Amino acid sequence: MSISAEKYVKTFSIVMLLTAFVLAWTFPGYGQEPAKNLVRKMTVADAVFIALTNNVTLRGRYLDRYLDRINLQEAERQYYLPTDPKLTLSLNRGSKFAAPNTANSVRTDYLEGSGNFTATLAIPTGGTVDFTWNNSGARPDMDQGLNNYSSDWSATFTQPLLKGGGLDNQAYKVRFARITEENNILSLKSLITGTIGTAISAFRAYKDAERSLVIAEMGLVRAKALYEYNKDMIAAGRLAGTEIVQAQADISSQESSVIRAKNSLDSARLTLVSALYIDKNTKFEAVDENQELVSPPPLEEALALAFQYRTDYLQEIKNIEIIKLQLKNAKRNMLWQLDFTAGTTDGAAGTFFDSYDAAARRAFRTAQERDWYAGLNLTIPIVYYMTSDIKNYLTIKNNLEKANLNLEKFKLDMEIEVQNALRNVDSSYRSLKSATLSRELSEKKLQIEKEKLGAGRTTNFQFVSFQRDLTQAQSAEVKARTDYLTSLTSLDATLGTTLATWNIDVRKEDDQIKQTSVINETNPSKP
Is residue 257 part of a domain? Predict the structure, then answer.
């Protein structure tokens, strides 16, 4: 072997060792902390945690949870507290002329005030109790000091006996509110799942861009090493001068690849910054995820998990429950309106006393002066074709039939999605193993070709072609690795187990995301 050939072999060996070191440093993890804290070391778990903490949409949804809980509490307490109670107070002071346009006309100062209270109480049978309490006081002539006070109250009880009545008919309102709250929780889970998926996708895109840049830079190093070897061979008279053009062209091509890779890396970094909602100048070092084979569950078990955890499927079930409640209510509302009413009013309303105490005692203690009544009110619709209640019932019934059909179609689509997700995990893992083997063989092939080049038994063109084959094999392995990890994440999403995988518990009383245990720092993606 010539001196120039030996020099190239040594140079190439150093390049290959450097490549292996950089790939090992970039792919499996990091060997040292970033200098001066300018670069942030980040795992996929870090990305998910930061995204869940900073995501503006998610934080806004948790703010809405306060109102969601208030709405549920109002629905559950509607039979225990009066609705819309009102206290109206007024106070007036003025003066007026007594006996105007006469010789005895004088100005009289007066003072008037009132306090009225009204409230309505709903009862579980669908009835209502309306209560009104009116109080007034006046001093017609401030100089004389005479007072006029009055107090009276009335109450009315209304109970629907057919339309709008019944325990079942009223209980649906509370049940409706509770199902709505359950749907709110499912929507929140879906939003959290989407936030996790976005963060993981952005993290992996950035990691791929890092790997692609390393591959491009190593390709450039190999191209420059070949160029130096060709210069030495031409100087020794063992290689034609025109042969160096191939090496120069390869350097130019590799430099373009490095430029594109750097641009893609910065673009991926900004996408990750946006997903995490952090300072746009933050730089990262992405730590590799664990790529060991994860055994997915059998098809039947996977389907059971999907039917148990998929938020979109559970929402379909809840929506059908709501329609069923609406249908039951609409069916009763097709009946005639028959209401029982009873009440009492003050028969001596407007009686005045010189003290408020006397007026209040008379209002609440004198039953003989009160008026009492009870009766039935029947409203019969005159039907020309159909009433609005009948039309509403038919519409809801039609909606229920369509919802059941859509649910069957939804279940079928879910089964297909689960089957495809399981197959993709197996296929992507086998593709990763194949891509890894292809990259290893390309490295061996290039090593053999390097030895041939040193012995003068191959051409620059052939050697450059093998270098490009290695670059393509490395890029294919990067893509295969990401495809495999993505298939695990997709399987999680398809089964609805993303929150369980990341140990996130969503409860109606929580004001922020709760994690039930520490996240696996390398790869929590385990169905």
Answer: yes
Q: Which pLDDT does position 242 carry in this prediction?
A: 78
Q: How far apart are CA 199 and CA 45, in angstroms?
A: 9
- Is the whole model's pTM more than 0.85, yes or no? no
Domain contains 78: no
Q: 100 pLDDT exceeds 80?
A: no
- Least confident residue range of 37-41, 43-47, 221-225, 440-444: 37-41
Environment class of residue 375 by beta-carbon count within 10 Å: exposed (0-12), middle (13-18) or buried (19+)?
A: exposed
Distance CA 239, CA 230 (A): 7
pLDDT at 384: 63
525: alpha, beta or left, given left = phi > 0 and alpha = psi -120 to 50?
beta
Note whether residue 115 is domain-resident.
Answer: no
Q: Is the pLDDT higher at 42 or at 383?
A: 42
Report, in angstroms and rounded to the nearest whole number, the Rg of the chain calculated over CA atoms. 41
pLDDT tens digits along 122-140: 888 888 899 999 999 888 7
How many separate domains does the chain show?
1
Domain contains 382:
no
CA distance 356 to 149: 5
**Token reading at 148:** 């006029």
What is the C-alpha separation between 527 and 525, in angstroms, rounded?
A: 6
Residue range(s) defining the domain that contains residue 221: 3-68+174-297+421-515
Question: Cβ–Cβ contacts within 10 Å for residue 406, how many?
Answer: 13
- 222 and 15 Cβ atoms separated by less than 8 Å: yes
CB-facing half-sphere around the CA of 435: CA atoms within 13 A: 20
| pLDDT exceeds 90 at position 401 | yes
Q: E strands within 402-511?
A: 504-505
CB 68 within 8 A of CB 78: no
The CATH number of residue 279's host domain is 1.20.1600.10
Contact between residue 50 and residue 58 where contact means Cβ atoms under 8 Å apart: no
Q: How far does CA 456 lie from the centroid of its chain?
A: 63
